[in-house]
Amino acid sequence: MSHHLPKKLRTDLNPSRLLTFKIDGRDVSAREDESILAVARQNNIAIPTLCHLDGLSERGACRLCIVEVRGVAKLLPSCVTFPRQDMEVITNSERVITYRRKILELLFTERNHVCSVCVSNNHCELQNLSVELGVTHVHYNYLYPQLAVDASHSRFSVDHNRCVLCLRCVRVCDEIEGAHTWDIMGRGITSKVITDLNQPWGTSETCTGCGKCVQVCPTGALSEKGKSVAEMIKRRQFLPYLQMMRGRQEESWQK
Amino acid sequence: MGKTLTIEPISRIEGHGMITVTLEDDGSVSDAQFHVTQFRGFEKLCEGRPYYEMPSITERICGICPVSHSLASGKACDSILGVHPPETAVLLRRLLNCGEYIQSHALSFFYLSSPDLLLGMDSDPAKRNIVGIIEAYPEIARDGIRLRKIGQQVIEIVSGKRIHPAWVVPGGVSAPLTAEHRDTMLQMIPEALAIITKTLTMFKKSLENYREEIATFANFPTLFMGMVDAEGNLEHVYGKLRIIDAKGHIIVDNVDPSDYQAHLGEAAEDWTYLKSPYYKPMGYPEGIYRVGPAARLNVCNGCGTPLADQEWAEFRSLERGPVMSSFFNHYARLIEILFSIEIMERILRDPAILSPRIRAFAQPNFLEGTGCVEAPRGTLIHHYRVDENGLMTWANLIVATGNNNLAMNRGVLQVAKRFITGSEVTEGTLNRLEAVIRAFDPCLSCSTHALGKMPLQIEFRRRNGTLIRTLQRT
């Protein structure tokens, strides 16, 4: 029954082995199986994230949590990078911040994000990140892909124009609900989240209609029908509780 | 050899337009046209979007009258859902509309047209703008700015945002009104009433000075269309359409806006991006009709509020039958501001205004819906079709200014014929050509930056199109 728990990225790491390293010059200690992101957050060091969500497995999809590691030429995503003894991590260098901004700008160019008419306006993680990172302009050409809205489900709709491919919906459906209705097709920026075998959501046989995917979606890509512009406020509080309760059930079943 | 006179862009209007005047060899005017030179494409770009985004999408058509678009769109969505918004939602929507009328009419009168009216049509173009008004008539400028601010504040208090609020939603509105906010708005009413009363008195006294303009600013018989309530009184949001002829006889009444296509046809010309609606039974272009402030006062039996009713009676006594000159739109605008202030007070004193029951919920029950309101510039119709999932498949918008297209064209020709004589075309004449357009207060786009500062260019061309010379106003 272990599939209820977030999948471990690495099985070769020993959770009982402790190590010390540096984040932004501060000495921190960590377990060997804790990501740099997790350790940073334990120590109140802010690293922006988009695809990460507490309670779900890590995906490393958005790359917004990139950090610099001394001695390593490339930037590393802190959510899927594990500390080593005496590693020196820098989370807020000019280089890191510039790249984060570029990543956000590229996200905006890939789809058609129009905040003013979006159900999630003012309650959107992508929008908040742009404010936080000071993205006021996009320096790349927009791609303006032609993407349709799927409103075939009786209660929810998916607007691919606003999807950032964080795959939270795919993970929550698989790891928490256990339905695995959502998946991904295509490659690179032509990827697209799909329901079942790339069919209208309303015809999906596996979807339980629980709505977890809608609640964890960071943007207005997944929304409840009937919500008007700026009215879609996502509730994610359920996730850690649900995970904890299901984990407890598993423990009791195992006994 | 004939010539063409081009005025581009037309200044102090909302949006971008151009006037061309074709001159005969002897310098007399043979034709004149008003072109709308920009293309927006909203009807097309909303296809595939969920119906509930339409109020916000269509609001982006305009920065001055977004409220009208959101109301028309909200009503079209109501009919797609098949619901009646609760009483309080209807009151709140009407209240929002009052704020819009006050600010939009104040913008048109004080910011855009008062330079012509107060400084004179032939005055120095460098000063003929709101800044010139501030210098010459500081008190009037202050009043205008204050009145527009009151309108904008009402919009902000009611809907949370001055421009492009996302508050009108399918089935009602998204947030109720608090008692505190109601009281704040009630406190603004005496000042607003004082300003508009003063302005009306001043304007009525000055009418004598504009005899030429009154006689030529689209002063010809046409049909008029506007919305009236069940008693036939002036109504801006929830009413039925009425069309009268040039003698004032009602030719159709009590038209449900969803039947608009039975009465209105839409023609398109290849020289302008603005379509030309016409009254269908009379055909194109004979079915010319006008909408807007003066048209509304022409079609209604009265205003239904005490102060505005007095002014309305005086307005209608200007002529026997409907008031024909579009110049009087300025006058009608002031009366409508007064009417909106009175309606606003009436709505705010209604105890139902504070109820939290402000929204009806439903899934789309109909595949087609029409919403209609009177925008400050005239009748505004939103007509949508959706698929069974509520995604837009088709939209048709008849925007207020479009209704007046035929009349604006004919008005430009009338002014050109009266004021252009011989080869000399004075600056004042050019300004009058623009001013007749301004009298309609056309909203050609979502532009809020047309402040008479744009360079005016006149091109003289031979009939075969070759340029003779160009004049530039700087």
Shape of chain B: globular
Query: What is the CATH class of the domain at 84-219 and 326-361 in chain B?
Result: Mainly Alpha
Main β-sheet, spatial strand arrangement of chain A: 2-1-5-3-4
Helical segment count of chain B: 15
Largest interface, and how many residues on either side?
A-B, 19 and 19 residues
Strand segment tally of chain A? 10
Which strand-content bin applies to the residues of chain A?
Answer: 5-15%
What fraction, in percent, of the residue positions of chain B are helical? 40-55%
User: Can you name the CATH architecture of the largest domain in chain A?
Assistant: 2-Layer Sandwich
Structural class of chain B: alpha+beta
Instruction: Write down the oligomeric state.
Output: heterodimer
First-to-last CA distance of chain B:
29 Å
- Overall mean pLDDT of chain A stands at 92
Structural class of chain A: alpha+beta
Terminal Cα span of chain A = 13 Å
Which spans of chain B of ≥5 residues are poorly predicted at pLDDT below 50? 445-456
Radius of gyration of chain A: 19 Å
Keywords:
heterodimer; A: 255 residues; alpha+beta; Ubiquitin-like (UB roll); Alpha-Beta Plaits; 2 domains; 5-stranded mixed sheet; 3-stranded antiparallel sheet; 6 helices; 10 strands; globular; B: 474 residues; Cytochrome-c3 Hydrogenase, chain B; 4-stranded mixed sheet; 15 helices; 19% strand
